[in-house]
Amino acid sequence: xxxxxxxxxxxxxxxxxxxxxxxxxxxxxxxxxxxxxxxxxxxxxxxxxxxxxxxxxxxxxxxxxxxxxxxxxxxxxxxxxxxxxxxxxxxxxxxxxxxxxxxxxxxxxxxxxxxxxxxxxxxxxxxxxxxxxxxxxxxxxxxxxxxxxxxxxxxxxxxxxxxxxxxxxxxxxxxxxxxxxxxxxxxxxxxxxxxxxxxxxxxxxxxxxxxxxxxxxxxxxxxxxxxxxxxxxxxxxxxxxxxxxxxxxxxxxxxxxxxxxxxxxxxxxxxxxxxxxxxxxxxxxxxxxxxxxxxxxxxxxxxxxxxxxxxxxxxxxxxxxxxxxxxxxxxxxxxxxxxxxxxxxxxxxxxxxxxxxxxxxxxxxxxxxxxxxxxxxxxxxxxxxxxxxxxxxxxxxxxxxxxxxxxxxxxxxxxxxxxxxxxxxxxxxxxxxxxxxxxxxxxxxxxxxxxxxxxxxxxxxxxxxxxxxxxxxxxxxxxxxxxxxxxxxxxxxxxxxxxxxxxxxxxxxxxxxxxx
Length: 516
Ligand SMILES: Cc1cc2nc3c(=O)[nH]c(=O)nc-3n(C[C@H](O)[C@H](O)[C@H](O)COP(=O)(O)OP(=O)(O)OC[C@H]3O[C@@H](n4cnc5c(N)ncnc54)[C@H](O)[C@@H]3O)c2cc1C
Prior knowledge:
By secondary structure, this protein is of the alpha/beta class. It has four domains: 8-60 and 139-200 and 439-514, FAD/NAD(P)-binding domain, CATH 3.50.50; 67-128, no CATH class; 214-285 and 374-431, FAD/NAD(P)-binding domain, CATH 3.50.50; 299-370. Helix content is 39%, strand content 19%. It has helices spanning 17-32, 72-75, 81-90, 92-102, 104-119, 130-150, 224-236, 253-263, 266-269, 299-307, 312-326, 333-347, 352-369, 375-386, 444-451, 499-514; strands spanning 8-13, 42-47, 155-160, 162-168, 174-179, 185-195, 214-216, 245-249, 274-279, 286-287, 372-373, 390-403, 406-413, 419-421, 428-431, 471-473, 476-478, 486-487, 492-493. Strands 1, 2, 3, 4, 5, 6, 16 and 17 form an eight-stranded mixed sheet that branches. Strands 7-15-8-9-12-13-14 form a seven-stranded mixed sheet. The radius of gyration is 24 Å and the shape is globular. The protein starts with 7 loop residues before the first strand and ends with a helix.
C-alpha cells in the first residue's frame, strides 16, 4: 500500500510537453489568482526517464540535430509565440554556441543556412533544432516552479519511476503502482490522475536473434545518439564490406530523421554498404512545397456536393482523390487545408456517428497520404540516396531470417503480392514501423488501463475515448497523442502528434484540473 499520508490532488504520469505545457498553464493560473485564497494543491509528476519536462522529441533521447517537422511558426502555438521568440533571440548566443559545439557538420550547415533567416524573423522558413524548444520549455517551467514554491501556491513532488498499473480505491481515488529504477515497487494515491505518456508505444517487429544482428526496436530508446553508435559498432565489426547493410522497417517521420542524421555523420555512413528502407509506400514523407497556387480545385468534393447525396465512404474517396493534386509537387499545405476543410464542411450533413467514424478512422488514413517533412530533411536523405546508399522497397515486412553473416528480409511485394527474399544480408535492423494498438501495448500501464477497463480505446485503436473534459473515466484524464481519434465539442483531432495542438489544449486541461 501507499506510504503517503495524504493523497495527491493531481498526478501526472509522463512529463513530456503534454504534461509540461499543462503545468505551465496551471502554474500561471495559480499565480494569477493567488490573492483569492487558494488551497495549496499537491501535484505529483511521475517520469520513467531521468530527464523531466522535455519528453522524447525535445530532450536527450533525440539527437541535437533533430529538427521540427513543421516550420517554427506552425510548431509554436500562436498564443505562445511572442514569449518563445523573445526567449529565442535573448538566448541565441547560448543555444548557438552549444549547437556549434555539439552538432558537428550538420549544425554548421544548419547555422549557415538559417542564421540569416532568423535575423530576418523569417519564421515560415526556419525549422528549428528541437532541443532548443526543450531548453525553452524547461526554462519556462523551472521559473514558474520557483515562483510557485516561493509563494507556497502548490506542492510539487517529482518521482523518477515507471507507472505500471492503476486501480480505483474504495473512496474513488486512483492508486498507481510504480516501479523504480532499482526495480523496487511503491504506490501513490491521487484524487485526479492524468495519463500523459506520449504516443502509443512502438510495435515490435519480430523475434530477432540478437547474436546475428543489431536490432533496434525503438530508435529513441535509450537515445538516438547511442543507437547510432550501436549501428556503427555492428558495421565496424563486419569484415566483408558487402555485408555492411542496414535495414530500416517503415518510412515514417523517424525514418527520414534518421537518414538526415546519418547523412551528417560521414564516420558512420561511410561504413554503410547499403541502407534499405521497406514500407508499403516505398517512399519517404513528401517535402513541403513552397509553391503558391492561385486556386485549390476540389472537383471530386464539388461533384458530391452538387449531386447532394453521399455517404462517408464516397466522401472519403472524394477527399482522397482531391488530395492527389495537393501532393503532386510536394505537400502543398494550403491546398491540403482546403481539401480537408471542404471535406469537414460536407461531413456536417452526415451526422454524429459518421463524424465519429471519420475522426476515429478515416482522418488518419487521409493524413497518411500527405506525411511531410521540411526541406533540410528531404535534402539530407536525398543526398544519401544520390550516392546510391539508400534503396527503397515498396513492400510489407514479413520476417527476418537468420543466416551465418546476419539476417535476410522476407517481404511481400506490394505490386505483385508475391513473397520475396531481399538479396542482401543485414547487420543492423532499425524498427520505424509505428505504434501498436492500445490493447496490445507493450506499456504495462496502458495495457492494464485497457484490460482492467479503467479506460476504453476509441475507434482509432491508438487513443482513449474521452469526454470534452479530457476524462476517460471520472477524474482520469488523458493528455497528449493518446487523445487522437476523439470527436467531441473541444477535442476533435484524428491525431495529436503535434506540439501546437497540445499547447492549444493545455489551458483547458489546466482549468479542469483546478476545479474542485
Ligand atoms: C521523435 C518525435 C518527434 C516529433 N517532432 C514533432 C515536431 O517536430 N513537431 C510537432 O508538432 N510534433 C512533433 N512530435 C509530436 C509531439 O509534439 C510529440 O509527440 C510530443 O512530444 C508529445 O508530448 P507527450 O508529452 O505527450 O509525449 P512524450 O514526449 O513521448 O513524453 C511522454 C513522457 O512520458 C514518459 N512515460 C511514458 N510512459 C510512462 C510511464 N508508464 N510511467 C512514467 N513515465 C512514462 C516518457 O518517458 C516520456 O518522457 C514528435 C514526436 C516524436 C516522438
